[in-house]
Amino acid sequence: MNIGDKVVYPMHGAGEITGIEKNEVGGVVSSYYIFRLPMGSLKLMLPVDKVEEVGLRELITPAQLEEVVEVLKAETDQIQGSWNKRFHTNLERLKTGDILDAAAVARNLSRQNSKKKISSGERRILDLSRQILISELVYVCNKTPEEITEWIDELIGLPEPEEN
């Protein structure tokens, strides 16, 4: 990994490695990648020796983008059980760091929320899944977060927001 690389940090989304810093934590000096997310200007520090452990991965290729599109357009998965069971199932999918899992969670919860408002816990999972998905697609498609958000909503089949 090098400064300037764009990578995906599971449970956070895609961002750019903007630097490497040494910091002391608990009397131990370690090197950290400085990782910036495009959405919200969040700055994360990731220990260099923990990259494999946390599952940092490269962005998908433009060729893999078609798979994401197919997932977003696919039928909604029917997860049985209470909202709590759905919450944990969706959370586990996001922890994989796989963009196809994030796309499926975003699709399912977006459609469910458009029909009947989802719980606040599921709303947090929906927001996180969309952040993960949008942040990576911003880099892959070279578009703004707003353009990607609109495109995702079209693919999922959500109604356009009403103007006030």
Give an overview of the whole structure:
This protein has 164 residues and is α+β, with helices and mostly antiparallel strands. The protein has helices spanning 51-54, 65-73, 83-95, 99-115, 120-141, 145-156, and strands spanning 6-9, 13-25, 28-36, 43-47, 57-58. Strands 4-3-2-1-5 form a five-stranded antiparallel β-sheet. It is globular.
Please sum up the structure shown.
This protein is of the alpha+beta class and 164 residues long. The protein has helices at residues 51-54, 65-73, 83-95, 99-115, 120-141, 145-156, and strands spanning 6-9, 13-25, 28-36, 43-47, 57-58.
Task: Name its key features.
Thrombin, subunit H; five-stranded antiparallel sheet; 47% helix; alpha+beta; single chain; 2 domains; 6 helices; Methane Monooxygenase Hydroxylase, Chain G, domain 1
Beta-strand segment tally: 5
| Biggest β-sheet strands, sense, barrel | 5 strands, antiparallel
CATH top level assignment of the largest domain = Mainly Alpha
Q: What global shape is seen? A: globular
Strand order of the largest sheet: 4-3-2-1-5
Name the CATH superfamily assignment of the largest domain. CarD-like, C-terminal domain
Q: Count up the domains.
A: 2
Describe the secondary structure blueprint for this structure.
Layout: E1 6-9, E2 13-25, E3 28-36, E4 43-47, H1 51-54, E5 57-58, H2 65-73, H3 83-95, H4 99-115, H5 120-141, H6 145-156
Helix pairs in contact: 2-4, 3-5, 4-5, 5-6
